[in-house]
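Data deposition worksheet. Section B asks for the primary sequence of the deposited chain exactly as it was used as input, without tags or linkers unless they were present during the calculation. Section C holds the resulting structure in C-alpha cell form. Section D is free text for depositor observations; keep each observation to a single sentence. Incomplete worksheets are returned to the depositor.
Section A, Depositor: J.P.
Section B:
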Amino acid sequence: MHVFERLFPKHPPKKKPLPEPTPQLALGALLVRIAMADRNYQAAEVGAIDKILAGTFSLKPLEAAKLRATCEALERHAPGTPEFTKILRETIPYMDRLGLAFSMWQVLLSDGDVNELEEDTLHQIEAALDITPADSADIKSRVLG
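Section C:
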C-alpha cells in the first residue's frame, strides 16, 4: 500500500452510528449543550461535566470522560433539546430533575463566567423539564451561594 493510499483512502472509514439517547446520554448532551451555548467550551466546563456524570452515574473518571465524549457527538448530531428533555421528564421524578438543574447551573458557572446565551439555554432546558420558575430561581441562588 502506498503512503498516499493510507493517507487518502478511496473510501473513508465508516463512522460508527450514534447510540439512541438514554437518560444518561440525554443528561450529558444537555450539559454539553449548556457549556457550548456561548461557543466557548472550556476545560473547566469539561471537567465539571465529567465530575457530574461520574457522581450521578457512579462512574470512574475514564468512564465519565468516555460518556461525555459520546454526549458531545450526540449533542452535535442528534435531536434537539425537546427530545432530550422528554426522555428525562418521562424517566426522572421532579425532585430528581431539580438535582439535574442544579448540576446544569454548576456547569454554567464552572468557567467563572455567567454568559447570557448559556443562561438562556439553561432556562429553556429547565422549562422543557417542567421546572417551575420559582424552583429555578431557588436553584440559581443556592448555586451562587
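Section D:
The mean pLDDT is 86.
The chain has one domain: 21-144.
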